[in-house]
Amino acid sequence: MTFHQEDHKLLMIPGPIEVADDVLYANAHAAVAHVSPQFVPVFGEVLQMLRKTVDAPSAQPIVVAGSGTMGWDMISLNVLQPGDDVLVLTTGYFGDAFADALRTYGVQVEQLRAPVGGRPGPDEIRAKLESKKFRAITITQVDTSTAVLSDIKAVSELVHQVSPETLVVVDGVCSVASEEIHMDAWGIDVIMTASQKGLGCPPGLCIVMAGPRAIQALESRKSPATYYLNWNRWIPVMKSYEAGTPIYFGTPPTNLIYALHQSLKTITEGPVSLQERYKMHREASKKVKDTIRSLGLKQLVSEELQASNGASNSMTAVCYPDGLGAADILPKMAQRDIVFGAGLLKDYKDKYFRIGHMGH
Ligand SMILES: Cc1ncc(COP(=O)(O)O)c(C=O)c1O
Predict the structure, then answer these.
(1) What is the tens place of the pLDDT at every residue in 72-85?
(2) Which residues are CB-neighbours of 164 under 8 A, at least 6 positions away?
(3) Could you tell me if 156 and 67 lie in one domain?
(4) Over the stretch 187-237, which tens digit does the pLDDT of each residue have?
(5) Which residue has the CA at smallest separation from atom 3 of ligand 1?
(6) Strands 148-149 vs 167-171: parallel, antiparallel or unpaired
(7) Which of 247, 268, 289 is the last residue of a domain?
(8) Fewer CB atoms inside 10 A, N or C side of the chain?
(9) Which of 94, 100, 143 to mutate to test the pocket of ligand 1 (most atoms within 8 A of CB)?
(10) Which residue, 241, 268, 295, sits at the end of a domain?
């Protein structure tokens, strides 16, 4: 395949990210029928490769046109019910937004918030879990507004120890395929993500991995009051594609599925293993962070968290030096053909910028 992208500025925001040539080429696939023998195995393999990517042989992947945000709606409507108590661990903008989405559907939300650049500690989480029976806890593995990396393995272990009935729900939009995740082994019930970050595709796909307890939760509730987002409609479609006998509910975005297929092939089949891929992300992240430090710049993630693997490997949030702001730096980088992301966190957005270094 000889295919080259038009010249463009290097996109180094924390998603959407640069898309590899072969993935972009797959995205330009000629039109196919969404139920054709040509397309069906492609979608089926995408679902299988997603299980490998998050190491979740027992999970049901659900891939639907939409952005990551739609995952919050899906979880609110299919796994949870109005009145359920949910503990939201908040390490930035995206924890707040997840909480907002849950409240929209009548879920009773309690947020455990860390100071900016920090994350809630195990003692606080334990105390909350002991204070009431939560139906679910949500954790943002990497909050893209702060670059805080949560220790989802440790939190999930704690939940299983203190409150085993509580479902563990992970927002992996800024972490899947960049940060280590072992969904089954770590006892995670739901992971939601999207196509445009570590998965290396254009935006447009919402991806949710539903573990057996999340499926039980769906089955034990009355049918969700939504048409498009109802998993009772989508799960049979997903199963049918894996079985090679497609059924129809809502046309899948065939080109994006081709793109995701190509990207997942690289992620799951090489040239490097998933473990090696995580290691490469850690190395790339260290290079960026070491350089930031060598320039005398600080990160939004607290020093303490930086020292204990609490800074994301998929992105870096960099504080502007005293006396400089976005207008002094971002347009100058753009002149050098590099696009960095502006700050996102309310009250802090003029104090820092973000560098994405995930994916290929
Ligand atoms: C951690 C996190 N969650 C959720 C979202 C929402 O995803 P989307 O913008 O695809 O709707 C984002 C987007 O950047 C994110 O970073």
Answers:
(1) 999 999 999 999 99
(2) none
(3) yes
(4) 999 999 999 999 999 999 999 999 999 999 999 998 899 999 999 999 999
(5) 173
(6) unpaired
(7) 268
(8) N
(9) 94
(10) 268
